[in-house]
Structure formats: structure tokens, C-alpha cells
Amino acid sequence: MKESSEESKSLAIEKQKTLRLFMIIAALLLLAAVGFVVLLRGIEKGGEGKMDVDFTGGKFSLTLQKPIVDQIKLGTAKTEGSGEKIEFTQGRINNPDVVNQIRNLGPANPTAFSGKNFISNDLRFLFSAEHPEKWQVRYNPAGLQNAAVPVYTIYNQEGSHLNIGVGPIPQNVNIQQFVALNIQTMFQAGMIQQMPQVTYDLPSETAFAVFTNPQTLGQSYQKVIINRERNQVFVASANYNQTLSSPEGVQDLLNMIATFTLF
Predict the structure, then answer these.
(1) What's the pLDDT score for residue 108?
(2) Using N-to-C axis directions, what is the helix angle for 2-30 and 175-188, rounded to 10°?
(3) In the chain, what are the domain boundaries?
């Protein structure tokens, strides 16, 4: 019995270490320097087709030239608080027919937009962009094994960028606990000085945070989604350059992180 107790204690400690590590990683992803330097890549042409999806006995044409989340009428929530209201999608697409069609429409190349959509078949997520031709994609497969490395960085010439990372999460940690620990870590590290405005969609284990970035004095955004089937937590973080970013570029960035959705 004593050995079993010691093993349980050891397992709990290891889970806590894993969680604290990802707290730090999430904070770093969120507050990545806006003036970062990356090798510029052009956006390679992705798919441009469409698929017929069967919804309740009727045919539905799924096209890549429009945001997929709009076409399937995915549920949304709005940020709370006194600032601008941001409508963001619930965390996951669950309809298996829709998921299969999305996977078939996704490009083989992980740096290619598909029409107005970006589809990642390796991490099983998507988001939409109104002006995909103005964004480049940096893909780093090392992030699939190392949670300290963003798997994707989507950026433009104005200094705006969206980082997407993924890591493990213990079964007994819910979305509110994860976000609370993440905020605590950022306060302790001096990465934020004000409490973020956080809105939850609890059924889909999704959180959307808005706060002032101390590096840029502009708004920063973070969307967190937990995938219980795979015991993974996804963190999408968006930052823009307060001086250089155009209103169109900021709106596109907001739209990308707001529509970030798992499938």
C-alpha cells in the first residue's frame, strides 16, 4: 500500500511539472516579440475545390472560397467585459461527415492556405482569413514533439503574427484551472501587469483572453482549446504591431484567432 501511495504521489508531481512547463510555454507563445525575424516564405497555392456534405439528408456544398466555420454554422460565443465584443467559435467541429470532408479538402503542404481557409491535417485545426494572400506561414514540425516550439507561425509584413502551439494536459485539469494557472505564471514572470479579460465557453472547453501587451501597449489575444480525446491543449496567440499594422491587417488577425477551431 505504501508503494502504491508513493507511486501516486510521484505521478501527481510529474503531472504538475508537465502542466507548469506548458504554462510557461503558453506565456512565451503569447508574448513572443512582435519584431521577430523569420525566413519569409510565399504562400503556396492550396486547394480550391468544394465538397458536397450531407446534412440531415440534404446535400450541402462546402467550398474553400468562404470560411468553413460560417458555412457549417458553428456555434459561437462573444467576449465579455467593457471592450470591443469579439465573436469567437466554439472549440471543436464534432460532425464526423464534416470532419471527413474538411480533411479531404486540406492541402498536403502544411504552409498552404486553401482558399479563405487554413487547414492543418496534422494537428486537426482550421481557421479563416479574409486576405490569405497577405499572410505567410512558418511551419516547424519540431513543435509536434517539443511544446516549447510553436508548430505554426502565421505572419505578415506589418509585424502581426499568430502563433499556434500544442502540449499535453492532465485529465484532471479543466479549462478554467489551466487559464488561471497560465495567468498566474505570466504575472509572476512580469509578462503582464493587468488582469486579462477572459471569456469561457465551458461545454467546448474553450477560453478567449484579451489584454494589453506590455511590449507593444497594444491588444493581444489568446484562444485556448482542450481536446480531451487526445489529452492535448492548444494555445493560439495573436499580436500586432501598434505602429505598423493597418486596420485591415488587425481585423484579419482577429478573424484568424477568433475562428481557430479543432476538428
Answers:
(1) 79
(2) 70
(3) 2-44+76-94+122-262
Q: How does DSSP assign 19-32, residue by residue?
A: HHHHHHHHHHHHT-
User: Between 141 and 26, whose confidence is greater?
Assistant: 141
CA 23 from centroid of its chain's CA atoms: 15
CA gap 84, 102 in Å, rounded: 31
Q: For residue 29, which phi and psi values (nearest 5 degrees)?
A: -60, -40
Between CA 76 and CA 92 the distance in angstroms is 11
Question: What does the pLDDT look like over 219-249, one tens digit per residue?
Answer: 889 999 999 999 999 999 999 888 888 999 9
What is the sign, positive or negative, of the torsion defined by CA atoms of 207, 210, 215, 218? positive
| Interior angle at CA 226, CA 197 and CA 132, nearest 5 | 75
Note the residue count of the chain.
263
Q: Flag the least confident range among 138-142, 182-186, 213-217, 243-247.
A: 213-217
* CA-CA-CA-CA dihedral for 137, 84, 221, 202, to nearest 10: -110
**Per-residue pLDDT at 62:** 80
Please tell me whether the overall predicted TM-score, pTM, comes out greater than 0.70 for this model: yes
Query: Is there a contact between 230 and 212 (Cβ–Cβ < 8 Å)?
Result: no
Which amino acid makes up residue 230? R
Q: Are 236 and 222 in contact (CB under 8 A)?
A: yes
Q: Grid coordinates representing 232?
A: 492535448
CA 197 to each of CA 64, 73, 91, 211: distance values in angstroms, whole numbers, following the listed order: 33, 26, 18, 6
Q: CB within 8 A of 91, min separation 6: which ones?
A: 201, 204, 205, 206, 225, 226, 261, 262
End-to-end CA separation in angstroms for the chain: 42
